[in-house]
Amino acid sequence: MVSRKANGFSGVKRELAKYLLFTLCVLLAPFAFLDSYLLNVLVFVGIHTMLAIALNLLLGYAGQISLGHAAFFGLGAYLSGVLTTTYSWNPWLTMLVAAVVVGGMAFAIGFPILKLKGHYLAMATLGLGIIIFIVFNEWVEVTSGPSGFSGIPNLQLGQLVFDSDLKNYYLVWCFVLGCVLLSVNLANSRIGRALRAIHDAEVAARVVGVNARLLKVQIFALSAMISAIAGSLYAHVMTFIAPPSFGFNISVELLTMVVIGGLGSIYGSFLGALLLTLLPEFLRFMHDYDIVFYGGLLMVMTIFMPGGLVQGIPDLFRKLLNLRKGKGGNHA
Amino acid sequence: MLDLQGITQIFGGVTALNDVSFTIRSNEITGVIGPNGAGKTTLFNIVTGIYQQTSGRVLFEGVDISGIPAERLASLGMVRTFQNIELFGKMTVLENVMVGLHSRSSSGLFACSFKLPWVLKEERRIHDEAMEWLRFTGIDELADVTAANLPFGKGRMLEIARAMACQPRMMLMDEPAAGLNSQETLGLAELIRRIRDRGVTVVLVEHDMELVMDICDRIVVLNLGQKLAEGTPREIQENHEVIAAYLGDDD
Fold it and tell me: What digits encode the pLDDT tens for the residues A4-38?
């Protein structure tokens, strides 16, 4: 018993150490890429990390798919954009409003939609994403339609205006760090366990008293809320938003980040977001052929690393180590 | 404690249960037996809210529980186990039992995300109590094993530990001895007695006659959707109708 308890505590310590290491890397990263285009890309890695974590809570923990998550991202962005620009609201206030409104909307939609399972849930969320995308395009008086919505103010903290890549980097990553911390806490709590239980055996979870339906809706709403905050950040960082940033492609890209990074792993979502945001930048020299490399990589990854990067990389190291040991043995 | 009043279940044109009534007394082990197709599993699914009966009432401690969703039954004090054990395969043995404490803990989504002070306290209570139930069922050594990797017999113990973690007043077990070897069945019999001694009323549907006769205080026999007999193991063993139903009628 004593050893078991100690075990539990060391688990908490390991989690803390991981988080501190992650924080350190995040804080120091700009010094490696100062004044470079990469810093700007890293801002987007941060926004994508938030989105991937949001989707992972739903898909990796509760086991419920969403093919329309870009819609919540877009709603957050447009709410912030329109309220601050057209109605001159305070950007921080609109971020809060966007989170609450989008979360509340997802909560209401969640009850009918999450009764569906598997392919049907995928179709319903896909439909939701498409409807909202059409609204962004067609409600021209409010959203400015396909030409995009511009003139969104930067966020501001007292005299500090977040108008450079470096400032935006720290702004966005502060949110990411908060999001990671809260998600890791949640994943290791009774709620996280209940979600994983629903994922593994829903009937058995209900029989021991887990209200599967309510919990699924709650996590759907939380996931939408995080996505909306990411959207709000995106709007204020970019100062310009247009519908294509919130379309079906983006929903699929987010799904890919979650799967590639590792289902049910918060840090995996970061790795997935990092890889899928950086890769296109490094593949620019291939021009139009980068998509071939990209597709090939996805295939190789899903075949050889079904657990995602977060499991695949340690496995790969272990295999290489064994291989070297094996060779050493042969020589001797 | 559990009152079944005139339960009838008709599937299409087939009458699976016909006007079955009996009472399960608290603090007893009751066995529901009967030949294949007698309606045991149907009855079980009605009581645990999986089927909705065609007519009749199910009263649990005087409250009509017909149509109450499964997750509510747990908080009312009724929990069940499954014939083909249903575990949370990707979670550890300890985590499985910790989920069993879900209905007896209350930290919400936001409290858990922000790890508010009482969350830690509750988490420790959940952990310690879950370990206790693992010791109760004798699988505490396996706490950190992934549930999917457990041998079947241990999986059965885990399912019972998880059900006990709900602190039920009544536990319904669907063929708990199915798939167990004779050694494991002996252990199960002893465990079921200890569960009863903790004040939990146990109802089991079971094919293993030896086990049923050994541990049950009372037995209800179903045949062709009707109650055939009810009584102590000795009375049932001497009941001519029961013998006829099991061994075939000579008339």
Answer: 444 455 677 888 888 999 999 988 888 887 767 88
The residue of chain B nearest to residue A201, with distances taken between CA atoms, is B88
Integer angstrom CA distances of residue A39 from A6, A36, A156, A166, B209: 41, 6, 20, 7, 72
Which of residues 250 through 309 in chain A touch B, CB cutoff 8 A?
Answer: none
| pTM score of the predicted model | 0.88
> Which of chain A's residues have a Cβ under 8 Å away from the Cβ of B108?
191
Which of A189, A198, A213, A263 would you mutate first to test chain B, the one with the most B CBs within 10 A?
Answer: A189
pLDDT for A1 equals 36
Cβ of B43 under 8 Å from any chain A Cβ?
A: no
Place of tokens 């209350």: B106
Angle at A57 between CA A162 and CA B164, to 5 degrees: 145
Q: Return the SS3 of A302.
A: helix
> Which residues on B lie below 8 Å from A8 (Cβ)?
127
Architecture label for domain A37-282: Orthogonal Bundle (1.10)
Domain ranges of chain A: 37-282
Above pLDDT 90, what percent of chain B?
48
Spatial contact of B188 and B211, defined as CB atoms under 8 Å apart = yes
Q: Do B71 and A4 touch (CB under 8 A)?
A: no
Name the strand (E) or helix (H) holding A130.
helix A118-138
| Cross-chain residue pair B107–A191, CB shorter than 8 Å | yes
Instruction: Tell me the chain A residues in contact with residue B109 when contact means C-beta distances shorter than 8 Å.
Output: 186, 191, 218-219, 222
DSSP letter for each residue of A174-220? HHHHHHHHHHHHHHTSHHHHHHHHHHH-HHHHHHTT--HHHHHHHHH
CA dist., res. B127 & res. B114, Å (int): 19
Can you tell me the ipTM of this complex?
Answer: 0.88
| Residue A112 near residue A41 (C-beta atoms within 8 A) | no
Domains defined for chain B, CATH in brackets? 1-77+168-251 (3.40.50.300), 88-165 (no CATH)
CA distance A199 to chain B (A): 8
B74, B105, B115 member nearest A185 (Cβ): B115
Residue A257 distance to chain B (closest CA, Å): 22
pLDDT digits (tens, 9 = 90+) for A83-126: 998 888 898 999 999 999 999 999 999 999 999 988 899 999 99
Where chain B has pLDDT below 70, the residues are 248-251
Any A CB within 8 A of B82 CB: yes
Q: How confident is the model at residue A326, as a pLDDT?
A: 66
Residue A206 and residue A189: Cα distance in Å, rounded?
18
Please count the other Cβ atoms lying within 10 Å of the Cβ belonging to residue A317: 10
Residue in the structure block whose two tokens are 């995996």: A268
**pLDDT: which is higher, A319 or A325:** A319
